[in-house]
Amino acid sequence: MSMNMNLIKRGSEGELQMIGYIDAQNAAEVEKILTDLTKQFDVLILDMEKLEYVSSAGLRALKRAYVEMRAKHGTLAAKNVGRSVMEVLEITGFTRLFKFV
Known about the structure:
This protein has about 100 residues and is an alpha/beta fold. The chain has 3 helices and 5 strands, in the order ββαβαβαβ.
C-alpha cells in the first residue's frame, strides 16, 4: 500500500496531510518524516481525512512523534480523523496523544 503526504507550513506550525495507508512497508519512512517535522515545528497538525489505515507499525511512528513533540513542549494535533482510523486510535488509547482540532 502507499502513503502520500503534503506539508503546509505556517511559521512555527506545520500541517501534514496524510493520504493512504501507514503499514509495515512504509512506517519507517513515515516515522523519519515525522521525526524531521517534529524538529522543525512547535505545532504539528496531522490531517487524517484521507488516511485510510494505520497498522501497529504506524502507531509506533505516531507515538514517537508525540514523544518528540512532548519533549520539546510542542503540540501534536490531529484533525479530520476518519471513522476507521479513529476506532484504532480509541481502541489503542492513542486518542490521549493528540489534541484534536
